[in-house]
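Lab manual, section 2.4: Encoding a predicted structure.

Procedure: take the sequence of the chain (689 residues), apply the prediction step described in section 2.3, and record the output as structure tokens. A sample record is shown.
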Amino acid sequence: MTPEALARQLWSGPLPDPSAPGRALLGRADYPAVLAQARVLTRMGLTVDLPALQAAFPWSVDLAWLSVPAARDAAPLQRAVTTEGRRFGALGWALWSLGQPAEALAVMEGLNPDAPSHAEDILARAELRILAGEDPGPLPASHAHRLGLLQIYRQKGAAALSEQLRRDKATLPPQPALWTWLCDVFLTELDIPAAQDALTSFADHCPDHPALPLLRIRLSLAREDHGDARAQLTALDDADTPWTWPLRRHLLHLRCLGAEIATSPDADYAPLRAHAEAASRLFPRDRALGAALLSARELTEDWDALAATLPDHPDPRAAAVTFLRLGLPDAALERLNHAPPLPPDEAYRLRQRRAEALKMAGRPLDAAEALGPTPFAAPLAADHAYWRAEIALASRDLPAANAALSLALTAFPNRMGLHLSAARMAFLQGDDSRCADHLARFRSLKSTQTGQPVEDDLRDLITRDAATAPDGPGQAARRFALAPPAFTPDPSAQIPRQIAHYWEGPRPPGLDRSLCAWADLYPQRLFDAASARTWLEAHTTLAPLFDRLTSAATRADLFRLALLAQDGGLFADLDEYPRALVEDWLIGARSVLVIEEGHGTLANNFLATEPRNPLFIHLRDSVADRLSTLLDRGETPYPWWDAGPAMLTRAAARVPLTQGRRFLSQPEYLQRVATNLPLGHKRSPDHWR
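Recorded output:
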């Protein structure tokens, strides 16, 4: 069976006998054909008796190499390389991939200049030394430009790489590996001007290279221009034969398809999952494709059923990421503890993921310890700085956050996430001018990325408010963030043990799971637009105002305040998932409020109160007045600012603090409840965030 025929069969479904194509190789004497077919079969994850093939061709380094990824064993390759006295670079890379960097570097010492693979070996030695942070020595002349730029990026960061490229561009050779790497770096960094410049230079040097069309599509996706990306994908001449596509083509198609489905009124992600499953049969060992399949399953499958399969998932890292997205950080930590040894960069990213899981579990001090020391490579050091700052901000350790961000912003001035973290840090420090500068830089970078102006959002609103309104939500949020009011229990307090939720539209996977979890804790009521309006008409005068609101988020905000002011109890958004009991939060409390990690505003995704609580009566009435005024002026309310956390924060600061008002920090909240889980509706362009 030809590779294309085999791929076509796999595209349609699993093979009846996955070992049959491998058995057909045994006994064949045509080495080039055997090697080519063995490469195809191992890439497809099909059974191949590699020891038997290696016995038939004991001098083949390439056949020995094929056993490394699946068996995670470099011994056959080491025997072949040592016996043949060549291809030490292949052995070095294999050991590196298995998380044995010291051994990888050791086999690259004392290379034989007379070996037929010497040029390849010294290239591998130089690149491995650069990746390890060591002096590579003299760079091989044929690849000196690429290795020199790689060394600059690893040591000094993206800004230094851009500057060096600007100086050297006219003298760089027409090497596809060089230009592909540069495009990949700048696209990963979302440095759109640099990526466009590198792609243009690549096309000038190698106008017919097959990587160019896919890089152009990737650039369109980086710009969030999904229509252009789809048009370019459609224009490729193999659109009707997906089993012949290269791996990157599948990944780009899945990104486009996911964005297209998200914009449809009744999003159906079944085609996304079907394509991801078929492509994964062709490339079962690719991590990016495996992650795409897990993402598609998340959008189409019951979340409890999905979680039950993750302990046996072949990629512990991908399984841990999905556990985190499902709101299960403890399960993610358990899975991360069973990851195999990894190359240095990936081993650091594993540490980073472990720190993320601990932070998500409400354990910021443990997260900081898990993150460990700063890695030497500048791109990883910038990632480290981001997470170090996020963890420090969660603990309100502003000096630590500032120390982490300062150097990273110098080396990577175009990383948008760093500017957002720096803006939050400056806000909490009371430096509203510097906060505004970082937000302006973020908007500029985002506008450059998408080619569209960026509207102000909640970060801009609260920063300006803090700078101009002494009694507004901005200043109140800063006070709550840095000095949360102490809790004094009220023995007579009695929050009703009942919970309510609000939902409009189809239920995505994950929503029923949250419903069931909350129902296990307290008697439950679920409202939609119709039942909420009926309740409002029966108990308040707010039904006409509810009818005028065009945003589901604003309707939900108004309704929850009216319901809580009247009936009391608990209210939780359905992207909140309780992992533990919350009963002790209610004991002695007249109300329970959560201080958000970001800017210190009070969250409205979880609220608890006694009936007729003065705070919630004031909040209900002030939100209703604000919404009515805005609508009368023909303005569209912004949910977060006009009906949600900003209004709640201002009200809590204005209504005198009374006995029994409990404030939870976000780490305290996260110890019990996973928050803001990625339900499918959040991919829709009209989701308010």
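Check your result against the sample. The CA atoms of residues 114 and 425 lie 58 Å apart.
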